[in-house]
Write a structure and sequence with these properties.
Blueprint: H1 2-11, H2 28-38, H3 44-48, E1 57-61, E2 71-75, E3 80-85, H4 92-99, E4 103-105, E5 107-111, E6 117-121, E7 129-131, H5 132-154, E8 159-165, H6 167-184, E9 193-199, H7 207-217, E10 222-227, H8 254-259, H9 263-302, E11 322-326, H10 330-335, H11 349-357
Parallel strand pairs: 3-8, 8-9, 9-10, 10-11
Antiparallel strand pairs: 1-2, 2-3, 4-7, 5-6
Helix pairs in contact: 2-11, 4-5, 4-9, 5-6
Domain Fungal lipase-type: 82-237
Protein name: Lipase class 3
GO biological process, one term: lipid metabolic process
Length: 360
């Protein structure tokens, strides 16, 4: 009730109707403030060691839902709100969301409980595919978000920043695509301006999802901020097969072309072609087996009524969005040296803040 009361109070602030607009383009100060907002999900020790937000105040914190997902709503007195998405926690269920890494089509429907189905259209291209574990998290979070977005809009708040760090960054991609889709369907007001910062985010989907996401945000409305020393933006692992390229390509006709060759050449070329193509196809099937079908059994144990969807036969994850690189230099490594024991030393908020403050 404390957060809900604060939320209501913020909505009626007289300054909220002034209508300050978000500006396109990467804004160093804006990103740093959002890092401070995002860090507030940590425990008391983590939060107390990190600078507090200066511009925004917490208006609402959601209950834990889905696969240990949670989000915050923050607001300032100039009609800007922040949707902040929590990253991975120490809870094994939160990690399950990451490891449930098979792909599903970026358009479809997924049953998340006994009585609820989530319909989504995160891309128009039927070749676009996304990470199923983070889609499940998005499905639960957006149910709780939409009423709050509506309340903000009714109070005159039409400028919304979306921020996620780590797993929160991955979900921020999918959430942004979903909210923009709702706007196209006239299910969300078209004059709400969203601007997204995916910080330390892993790869959310394949190239065709990336194309559509980047086209929708390429005029300065979406950024992917990565520390060059951080391993998290490098996962999930990518496996590109001959089935992952555009329809018009030279590989599709290769088997027919090989058949036209004389017998000795045909035998050699077929052997080479199979040696190059089959290992990747087998690896993709194995990833889908272990990170899809088998992982879904554990998901079902944690989400009553969850029904695993049909998977998309790909594991071609790519880095997505306009990227802002926080380049780790010699001075950085003196402060944050590589470590085999502390595997998240380059991933938490402090190293990102350190490098962001060095940006011009």
């Amino acid at each position: 009730m404390k957060y809900l009361s604060t939320f209501v109070a913020l909505l009626v602030l007289p300054c909220a109707v002034l209508g300050q607009k978000l500006k396109p383009g990467f804004d160093k100060a804006e990103y740093i403030e959002l890092l401070k907002v995002s860090a507030q999900f940590g425990d008391s020790t983590y939060v107390s060691s990190f600078p507090a937000p200066q511009q925004f105040r917490l208006a609402y914190r959601s209950p834990v839902m889905g696969l240990d997902n949670r989000w915050d709503l923050w607001a300032d007195n100039q009609s800007v709100a922040v949707i902040s998405i929590r990253g991975t926690t120490a809870n094994s269920v939160s990690w399950l969301s990451n490891f449930y890494a098979a792909m599903v089509p970026a358009k479809g429907e997924i049953q998340i409980s006994d009585s609820e189905k989530f319909s989504y259209q995160l891309a128009d291209d039927p070749k676009a595919a996304i990470h199923v574990g983070w889609l499940v998290g998005t499905a639960f979070l957006v149910k709780d978000m939409l009423p709050k977005i509506d309340s903000c809009y009714r109070a005159g708040i039409k400028n919304m920043l979306i921020m996620g760090h780590s797993q929160g960054g991955a979900i921020a991609y999918l959430l942004t695509a979903h909210l923009k889709s709702l706007q196209k369907q006239s299910r969300l007001p078209a004059d709400i301006q969203f601007k997204t910062y995916c910080s330390a985010g892993p790869k959310p989907g394949n190239l065709y999802f990336a194309y559509e996401y980047e086209a929708a945000t390429q005029n300065g409305w979406g950024y992917n901020v990565v520390n060059s020393a951080d391993w998290v933006p490098e996962v999930p692992f990518s496996i590109q097969t001959i089935n992952d390229v555009n329809t018009t390509n030279p590989f599709k006709g290769a088997p027919a072309l090989i058949k036209k060759q004389k017998l000795p050449q045909r035998i050699v070329l077929k052997y080479i072609y199979n040696s190059l193509s089959k290992p990747a196809l087998k690896a993709q099937r194995n990833y889908q087996k272990y990170l899809g079908r088998l992982a879904s059994k554990t998901v079902k144990k944690n989400l009553s009524g969850y029904v695993a969807p049909s998977y998309y036969n790909s594991n071609d994850y790519v880095r997505t969005g306009t990227t802002i690189v926080l380049k780790a230099d010699n001075e950085y490594f003196k402060k944050y040296p590589d470590s085999e024991e502390k595997i998240f030393t380059h991933h938490f908020h402090p190293p990102y803040l350190y490098l962001a403050e060095k940006l011009p």
